[in-house]
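Q: My labmate handed me this sequence with no annotations at all. I'd like to see what the chain might look like in three dimensions before we decide whether it's worth expressing. Could you predict it?
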Amino acid sequence: MIPGPTAGRRCTGRRGDGRGEAAVIRDGFITCAAVGLVAAGCFVGCAGSGTAKTPPGGGDPVAIAKDPEAHTSARLRAVERIWEEAEAGRMDRAAAREQLKSIIWTRQPGVIRTRAIEVLLLDDREEGLADTRNMLGLRLPTETDWSVIGLICETAAARGWTDLTPAIVRSYARPVFEPADDARPERRALERLHPGVSVEETVYRVFAARPAPGLSELALERAERARRDAWELLGRLDPDGAARRDLLAADDGDGGADPMIATLRRSARELRAVPVTGSELEWVLRLQEPDAAAWWAEAAAAVGGLSEAQAQGLRVRHAEAVRWAARHRPAWVKAGREELLAELRSRLAGRRIYEREAEAGTATPARRERLRENEASLAWGDVLAILVIDEALRDNGVVSALFEQAETDRRDTSTEHGGVLVAAGLGEAGFRAVAYPPRPTQRVDDTTFIAPEDMFRQAPTALAHYHFHVQSVRNRAYAGPGPGDAEYANKHGRSCVVLTSLDENRLNVDYYQRGGAVVDLGAIER
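A: Here is what I predict for the chain of 526 residues:
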């Protein structure tokens, strides 16, 4: 699933975001109770406690270690006894290792699993350490307990296990509320494993590493996932893509033989933009398919004619606006940023603004939605995109379609609805509003829109993504993007529009983009 715009109360996660750990990962964020690493000295006191009494030296250690009713101290001692039994020859070593690994992989308390990892590391035979290292590399990308994450990262750094770098990067790629990115254990491990190399460059190297030939299908899938997660992480560490442009330009590896890197270089050269997030990377890869070839050629020609000043801050989302304007509003692509702003100010003059009020009185700060309050955040390409989107939203066919879709959405209380604004054709001046209702399995509730995969796959050349806030006819409190909508724009890098019902005949329109800029475009009328 792909995170979808919401009325500000809910956001869902995408496939592959670790939802197998549903009890501790919610809404695409790790929400562990512990936000820092738990000190080893407080493991017993911090762990859950059972009341069952177990003789310290008696009973089956495997059963006790896995018994949720046993006291924590007894379980910790039992974990140690499993390996002692193997060392004494009373248990097969391989069997003991598998029992310890099963504790690490299952939903045991973090304190029990960290002790199991520590005990496994006592097996210092070459084959034992290799197996432990492999297991920790597989576990880390989906691990959610900070004590376990911290121990794996510390172990990798202390032992110089550079082969765990992709796993560390994949773990680091998952966004969390806290700790901050610069305080996370994954970052500290990367800095220690690769001294003298910036974390951004280390993560880029994971992205740039081509899978070795002859890998199994499963190993190849993991390698490709690591590359995409690395790019997703760079979206946070390098939010404007500047570091990646430099790294791509300086990369003296065999990037030309790698389709992914070749695509990135082509995007930087011809669209003058590097995709920032993992979703944007997938977007640009989709634009390389044959059915988008004509669009790419026209967009690249239009972008190539821009001045250096106009190209400052260009993003992938701007390419369609530049392409359309070059054909239908050539004066716009010749204008500077201040001229475009003057045109936009003129258009918005006299339009009534309806700012979102749903979060009033909460800790969520209100977003200012007037152009003058957002101008500083808008690059030349942003202003052009807003002008073209405003043009699309004044198209009679688009307006008619949007009101029809809004009514369908209001009747459907199982989900929010949305779609894409697209040009009618490469040589046509008009626009269309194409609806993409969520699939039956993606309908969460009436305040959540989960954009279906088809919306991304079938409409890569769309001008903008849109969705509705029309739960009631008079819904003006929700006139504007909510927190989940901002997350969507940040993740997918699209130009976004939300349409909110003001009354039976008016929909308020708000434009928003990655980084938080919001511009209220006034209302469209039936």
